[in-house]
């Protein structure tokens, strides 16, 4: 039952504390068992195997009970037969005093101090251990339900009930609706952890979206620069073609001008010849 209670969020911490304190007490008792056995045998010898120290087991049990401050000093020492303890009464009182100092004071305070120290450490790691125990319990239950032997033992109606049970894949919690059923179903620390995780995820998505938009803008700018560059190259090639065509036209015009100049010079030569011929003919006539 305590094993099952340790899996619950509210009670698991106290069950963990109880188990840790019990383990520490058992360790200390086993470590100092020789001290308890020594005092138990001493009391049994000094009281001559009389009640409550009539046997080693009874003496050990009575010694452990006396550790809890239930000494019964008056019943053990003052009300005993003085004829039996005439010689050993002083020794009994010395042993009893040593038992009170070393066992009831030192050993008990040691156990309390170790328990308190471990409880402080347990408070730090208690939630982690509790969650680990819950996961372990869930794993054991799943293995038990999926086992063939256990499946064969279950009655038919219980199998149908288990098969109809469905796990909730979605659990919606709205921070602005604290009175909703799902909001109250979870503990406060789980809600805070879920809200914090949701905020971190939202921030991460915003950062990714911002970086994606930034990349898209950079791609658009790169595409525009590429289109402008291609247009410049096309305009440059077209301008080069126009310049080449204009140069060809100029060369053709220059060649035609040269031809015209040569033809004009030939005509001038022909005119000079004609003028000379006409002048020679006129001179011959006058003669």
Automatic annotation (TrEMBL):
<keyword id="KW-0472">Membrane</keyword>
<feature type="transmembrane region" description="Helical">
    <location>
        <begin position="90"/>
        <end position="112"/>
    </location>
</feature>
<keyword id="KW-0407">Ion channel</keyword>
<keyword id="KW-0325">Glycoprotein</keyword>
<keyword id="KW-1133">Transmembrane helix</keyword>
<dbReference type="InterPro" id="IPR005821">
    <property type="entry name" value="Ion_trans_dom"/>
</dbReference>
<keyword id="KW-0406">Ion transport</keyword>
<dbReference type="Pfam" id="PF00520">
    <property type="entry name" value="Ion_trans"/>
</dbReference>
<feature type="domain" description="Ion transport">
    <location>
        <begin position="2"/>
        <end position="122"/>
    </location>
</feature>
<feature type="transmembrane region" description="Helical">
    <location>
        <begin position="25"/>
        <end position="47"/>
    </location>
</feature>
<keyword id="KW-0040">ANK repeat</keyword>
<dbReference type="GO" id="GO:1902495">
    <property type="term" value="C:transmembrane transporter complex"/>
</dbReference>
<keyword id="KW-0677">Repeat</keyword>
<protein>
    <recommendedName>
        <fullName>Ion transport domain-containing protein</fullName>
    </recommendedName>
</protein>
<keyword id="KW-0812">Transmembrane</keyword>
<dbReference type="GO" id="GO:0005216">
    <property type="term" value="F:monoatomic ion channel activity"/>
</dbReference>
<keyword id="KW-0813">Transport</keyword>
<dbReference type="InterPro" id="IPR052076">
    <property type="entry name" value="TRP_cation_channel"/>
</dbReference>
